């Protein structure tokens, strides 16, 4: 008989694959930035937010914080690397004022993560306490990122159009949330369950809205570019966190 641990590992690997795809979803945006040698109206905030989210989940997955969380550690480590590349590209092709903004926010994030790490290692001397402290912070950041599509959902309802809510991003986000929610239930982990359960629920609502309003969506509407911070798995990329429209 297959053990629960083995099933959980398989589910976690599937979650890694799906989350990796979500992390790569903004790639066309950055290819466009590279070709035009300009960031135009795109915002760095989604990628800075995702970078912070990844750093917190990497901390959560460390053996001295929450043992046996290799799959959480790997996908968020990969996500951190990808987001860092996005931000480097953004930094290279942005004007000086925007560069200073990126550097300032990034510095604040690094100071914050360093302070949390120092506090956890210096003040919490058990895995349980360290897991609790870092886990609560991960839930806060993960939930905030998963809640970001609410403005897009509001727009869909008001305009009766799904033009700026891509179906496949919503579908993959739903599968990602379901996968990591299942992972958290196979060996109960409340801190992974809360943000991913919420993410699966919100993505399901997006899918329902899509099927309600796709018939009333203009077929010749303006083009769209969708920026994802992608959340991360146990925190996963959150699609539709920022949408820019080009006329």
TrEMBL record:
Major subcellular location class: membrane
Domain of life: Eukaryota
InterPro entries hit by this protein: SWEET, SWEET_rpt
Record bears the keyword Repeat: yes
Membrane topology classification: Multi-pass membrane protein
Molecular-function GO terms, alphabetical: sugar transmembrane transporter activity
Keyword annotations of the record: Cell membrane, Membrane, Repeat, Sugar transport, Transmembrane, Transmembrane helix, Transport
Residues that span the membrane, as ranges: 6-24, 45-65, 71-93, 100-121, 133-153, 165-186, 192-213
Compartmental location: Cell membrane
A single cellular component GO annotation: plasma membrane
Function: Mediates both low-affinity uptake and efflux of sugar across the membrane.
Assembly with partners or alone: Forms homooligomers and/or heterooligomers.
Family: Belongs to the SWEET sugar transporter family.
Protein's recorded name: Bidirectional sugar transporter SWEET
